[in-house]
Structure formats: C-alpha cells, structure tokens
Amino acid sequence: MAKKELSIEQKIKYVQDTLFVISGKWKLPIMMAINSGNNRFRDIQRAVPNITTRVLSKELKDLEENRLVVRTVYDSLPVTVSYTVTPYCKSLKPMVDEMIKWGENHRAELKKTKPT
What we know:
Elements: H1 8-22, H2 27-35, H3 41-47, H4 53-65, E1 69-74, E2 80-85, H5 87-90, H6 93-113
Antiparallel strand pairs: 1-2
C-alpha cells in the first residue's frame, strides 16, 4: 500500500517542527562539534567560534530536551561531564551534508555574480 501524500499544511508543519528544534545560530554547529569528537563543555566551546558560555549551556540543554544530545556526568574528582550526540541526532547527517554542499555552492554562486 502506497504512503498517502502529505498536504502542504502538513509539510509546512513538519518543516516548522524541524526548524524549531535545530534553528538558530548555534545548534547545528554545536552538534557538529560534538559529533567530531569535542565531548567536553570547554572543547565544544573552543570548537564553535564566538559562542559564549551562557549560550552554549542553554543550547546544550535545549538539545538534550529534544533528545539530540546526551549529557553524562562521571563521578570523579573533579566531576567530569561529557556530551554525545544520539543516534536520533545522527539521522540529521544527510540533511546537514546537503546544507554544507548548498552553502558551498551558494558562496561560489555569489562570487560569480559579484560585480568587480
């Protein structure tokens, strides 16, 4: 049985849901930093240029609430905290890869059309 085609209203709703979860200046760069091996707070902060401690903390909490990042606290002295992306977060990879390609092409397109 074929899957029923979504209405434009449903499609818009799902796009808005996606944008709500991953939109903003910082969420995707944070997820990319964690996915590339920066698991501790300071490492993530160093990997994402110009992000403040306060913003990083807030964004990590949002990502955790949306099940894209897992925060693990280790019982050590001093206490160690690490962040990892979830398998659910990894499902965004094809979309992020396409966004990277599009961004690269867009920059090239803008360079071609800029008057000298």
